[in-house]
Design goal:
The protein is mainly α and 153 residues long. Helices cover 67% and strands 10% of the residues. The protein has four helices and three strands. About 3% of the residues have low confidence.
Length: 153
Amino acid sequence: MVRAIILSIVFISIPAFSAVYQCTIDGVATFSQLPCGEDAKEIIIPETNVAQGIPKQSKAVAGEVDSYITMQKIDRDIALLQREIKQLQDTLAAQKTKISYMTQDTANRMGASSIADAIAQRTAQVERRIKPQIEQYQQQIETLNTMKAQLSQ
């Protein structure tokens, strides 16, 4: 049983035929791996020589495809970064709105002289935390756009 399985694996992994047979059946040319009729003509298919490499035209097409795929990835990365920026901007706006509802009691606990000063302090804290992240994402977008421009040349 094990021997039969091993033999079947060996025969499957070895190319079974390097020839194709051409026959005419009911006036239609038919191709088969086995002789398909009395008029079967054997057509020898030469082995593919992969050592010759890719033709120059194929290399150019492959380079264009690679550039296209890279540009598509850059576009996806830019879209992702833009969504992150939008989310950070929304977070910043929501926190500014929340800060604007500050009470005098909260301002007093912060040690601010007025509600306006307390709001300005809290807003500055939030902006110092969020704006650098937004700027970093914007710089990454600029870099990706530069890469994209270089690829399109």
